[in-house]
Amino acid sequence: MTLYGMGTLRNNFVSFTPAYLPVRSMQDIEKEISKFIRYTGIFGNSIAYDDTSECAAGCFAANPGVVPDYVVVDWTKAPNTYIFTGKDKHGSEVDGLYIPVKKAYEMWSKGGEFMKDDHGNYTPIPSGTAKAGLYWEDEPGLIKSVALQGTGENAKIKVLVNKLKEGNAVVSYRVNDTVYWTWHVWITDDPTTNGSTYHLGFEKDKNGLPVTDWKWMDRNLGATSANFLGNDWHKSQGLQYQWGRKDPFPALAHKDGT
Asked: Is pTM beyond 0.85 here?
């Protein structure tokens, strides 16, 4: 869910008597996700996220107390990973993406216990010279350029992608030459197009409600191929993660030993 900015949802506890946890309709949630993607930004000739209505048709009523808006409420839940397919949802070509750095500032100022120092205090990102850069890429020449636009917590990282290649990259945000946050960019064809919808029927969401309208990706996270056979079978391995780290590592060796 992090990939699609589920942090934009306003499913916060509302103080009423009796108290209850409001539930958003799936259409409303999808709109919130689209708004976050629109705010994050893709550049090119895209009108994919120009629709600002709450729901176009066939809407379900949300419980009282849920107030939709067009503001990202909790930036600590903004994505750490972005999928770039080279196209928007209407099939229009795009050349890259913008990554807002506000998540980094929010994490260092109120990101939870693991973001505090040894004395239990937050250490917000200081003022100073800010830069964005390419931290690593697993395919040489995958990222054409990385540039910082704007200042402070309202800045965005503009990532221009070489669409002739596929692979993974991590871009960084630095202040006074100290890296304060990084984001993973996954460049591949859409991993949800042929994903499986298999489920056993008893799956539920955090509110205990049945969930059936979801789909598995057709490959491992970071893989550039869903094929386990044929000439590209070694590209299906994906990335590796270490417990406690938010960023992935490139595989040390392909499955064919190279």
From this structure: no
